[in-house]
Amino acid sequence: MTSLRDAALTSKAWPFEEARKLLKRIGGETPEKGHVLFETGYGPSGLPHIGTFGEVARTSMIRRAFEAISDIPTRLICFSDDMDGMRKVPDNVPDPDALREHLQKPLTSVPDPFGTHESFGHHNNAMLRRFLDTFGFEYEFISATDFYRSGQFDEVLLRAAERYGALMEVMLKSLREERQQTYSIFLPVHPETGRVLYVPMKHVDGAKGEITFDDEDGREWTLPVTGGNVKLQWKPDFGARWAALDVDFEMYGKDHSTNTAIYDRICEILGGRKPEHYVYELFLDENGEKISKSKGNGLTIDEWLTYASTESLSYYMFLKPRTAKRLSWDVIPKAVDEYHQQLRAFSDQTPEQQAANPVWHIHRGQPPASGMVVSFSLLLNLVSVARAEDKATLWGFIRRYAPEAAPETHPDLDQAAGFAVRYFQDFVAPTLACRPPTEPERAALEDLVARLRAIAETGAVPEAYAADHASLSEEVFMSVVRDTGKAHGFDSLRDWFKVLYEVLLGASQGPRWGSFIALYGVAETVALIDRALAGELVS
Questions:
Q1: What confidence tens digit (pLDDT) does each residue in 277-295 have?
Q2: Model pLDDT, residue 292
Q3: Contacts by 179-185 with C-beta closer than 8 Å and gap 24+?
Q4: Disulfide-capable partner of 164 in 72, 181, 193, 204 (CB 3.0 to 4.6 Å)?
């Protein structure tokens, strides 16, 4: 029988494909530094957004895939470029006007507008780490400010001064002519104002490791490139970091893809070996625009976790990383239900299928059992018709549908019930608008309610279905709904189901009707249709 490691060595799941490339890069041997190093970068110019989480989640999936096919130790570094100068004040912070006097200062020198940390950079770093810790990521955090000021970057910075001409040649080719006139890979930190200066160099002394420049007032300064006196422009910084840390793998968004050759060449000039890359597509908000830390558009991590589990978000991040995806409210229910579908399938799959299953990569090969005996989408419909304001109301229906289920034994279902109430109230309820049925539709609904009322009164399987069904079930209810539609000339059952959705639920789509009736109850469904026929749902 095929083992999981054997399956992983041929799996087409993208984390395993990337892990195999990485194993090939190092020749299957432990690197001299004793481990394989994964890195993710973070620009803390604004509050962390969900795309930042996605980068760490996906990198972690590749890391775990690598560990499944190799016994070589690994590390994951999350690097924050918090020494970057604040170029603009974010829109989504308290009292933004108070920050304007600190423009161009390193983010770790800008006061925290939230008043909770020693600087804006420290605040955003803390937010990032809190988000990552929520998901249990194993990572090491490095602050660029600490990296520059502690001397850890000094060796590479001195090499950059020595090889300044070669580095500038790479960079100048990528710039417009007017930008070339003032560009330097080095950004001095002004000794008096503390601002990160974008000024040309008058002289770079590679032997001494010093730069000479004029500040905005025309005063000349000479500073060492070490000890946090300068930082590198962001593109050279990217490649220099690879060289300094000996990074083996880094992924980044498509907006960086045109710079890959620059990053690689910078790394090589500074004596490093370019790492393996993985370029992913960008996340979009509900309007199809790229999500932005400074704008605060698109879903945040906290917002997703208000309505769904951490695992559902990890599942969404696993799917097609090289396809642009919307991060808006309406993707959440589908992600929750698909995640649990994959959980239920896992135990019966072959090792090859398990290696391709997203839940293997979310749970490091040990996914839990799913307790979602009711789908999230169906819970949302139940909240609607039951007018539920808390999950306790939903449990009254769930226990009748699945007597073996309880909040204590099915914690994921209990959590989802609470999420469903919250999600419905915030996003579904404001959009619902039940319509009155047309005359032909009314006739069909009256027939359906008569058939269901007969079942409710007798508690027995209708004679027409007794030969195939010993007791009432979702299949019986679905057959009743389906046959009613056919009897009333609905050649397309899709059209019939849409009538039921629009008239009874106020939406254009919804649950499988057999499952809905089994969960909500036959008598309750009869009452719902009666209310629709009386016009009460429209009002």
A1: 999 998 777 777 776 655 5
A2: 61
A3: 183/233, 184/211, 184/213, 184/233, 185/160, 185/232, 185/233, 185/236
A4: 204
φ, ψ at 77 (rounded to 5°): -110, 135
Residues ≥6 apart with Cβ < 8 Å to 261: none
What is the distance between the alpha carbons of residues 528 and 459, in angstroms, rounded to a whole number?
18
Q: Is residue 166 domain-resident?
A: yes
CA distance 196 to 216: 11
> What three-state secondary structure class fits 60?
helix
338 lies in a domain?
no
Looking at the structure, tell me whether residues 388 and 443 fall in a common domain: no
Q: In whole angstroms, what is the distance from residue 139 CA to residue 132 CA?
A: 9
Task: Read off the pLDDT of residues 34-59 as tens digits, 9 standing for 90 and up.
Answer: 999 999 998 877 666 777 888 999 99
132 and 83: one domain? yes
In whole angstroms, what separates CA 466 from the centre of its chain? 48
Kind plus residue range of the DSSP H or E element containing 119 = none
| Residues spanned by the domain of 503 | 439-533
Do 53 and 102 sit in the same domain of this protein? yes
Longest dimension (CA), the chain: 98
CA distance 528 to 209: 79
CATH of the domain at 496: 1.10.10.350
Q: Determine contact, residues 432/384, Cβ cutoff 8 Å.
A: yes
The residues, any chain, with a CB within 8 Å of residue 342's CB and separated by 6 or more, are 315, 357, 358, 359
pTM (2 decimals)? 0.89
Strand 220-224 and strand 230-232: pairing? Answer: unpaired
What CATH number did the domain enclosing 28 receive? 3.40.50.620
Tokens, residue 307:
């309505």
Q: What is the DSSP string of 23-44?
A: HHHTTTS--TTSSEEEEEEE-T
Do residues 70 and 35 touch, judged by C-beta distance below 8 A? no
Q: Which of 363, 300, 325, 360 is nearest to 131 (CA)?
A: 300
Q: For 139-166, b where at least 16 C-beta lie within 10 A, e where not — what string? A: beebbbbbbbbeeebbebbbbbbbbbee
Tokens for 39, please give them.
Answer: 């890195």
Residue 389 — φ and ψ, nearest 5°? -115, 0
Whether 201 is covered by a domain: the verdict is no
Per DSSP, the three-state class of 188 is strand
Q: Indicate if 89 and 135 belong to the same structural domain.
A: yes
